[in-house]
Structure prediction request, 296 residues.
Amino acid sequence: MLDRPDSIAEKFKTFIGNLKVDNQDLIIQRGKEIALALNNYYWRIKSDTRNILYLGSFGRDTAIKELSNVNLMVVLPPQEYQRLEKWPGNVQRTMLREMRDFMTKINEDAYISEDNCLLLPYNKPPIFEILPAVAAPKKNGYIYPDPDNGGSWGIFNPVREIEVLDEFNYNFNGKVKHLARMTRAWKFQHKVVFPSMLIDTLAMSFMDDWEGAETSYSYYGNMVMDFMEYLAGRKIAQLDWYAKGSNRKIHREEDFGAPANEAYHKAVEAMNYEEKGEAYNANRCWKEIFGPDFPG
Prediction:
């Protein structure tokens, strides 16, 4: 495949830059405050980086600007799990409540939502969602509390999920994360209900088979067009996928195929304008797909 005119490449380079998380310093600062307090109280060490792990799109480096929610796993000593396991009742709810009480020392507004998420709201976004967990080396992951339905312990391996995504991204010269970020821009612009982990999972699966995987920025228009066609082609009856690296189930609540099909046809229109050299009309189409962060 031959490279297309540099104008397409430059537009998509600029677009990717425009999507960069714009409150990263604030996120890291808050994460360090939490880590410092956590390690001092639970681990009796002085560290503002250990025993925390960013999850979600921020942790996987596929988040975009105006990030409103950050998922943070806080790792507790195994003794905390062992202590609660001896207690009767819903000890998972107890762990969550104990963590809430501890978090009020950092943020007095910390609370547990109706769907059992431990949240730390701030005057300025993002909100932090805290997941207490205990490392379980023998189970190759982390144990976390699920207080629903009387309480149970879940296990997953977010570290491996991040590693697999990084491996895919490296193998495909950064395209996986770029595609995931652009897809989020489309998702937010059109209010598409589309789980973030599923976006990343499908971006990896798509890139594995895409014939343009070795091309440059000049083919990002084609990549978007082909990925939207790929999304539109997912079976509407399929409700569950499995995360690469952990095999964690990812459930979708609504169909994303119909809006993806609309985006595909708009991308076809944009590429036709690009071929004719009609940059203004092409940019108009890209903006309809992605919103105002697309340049031009």
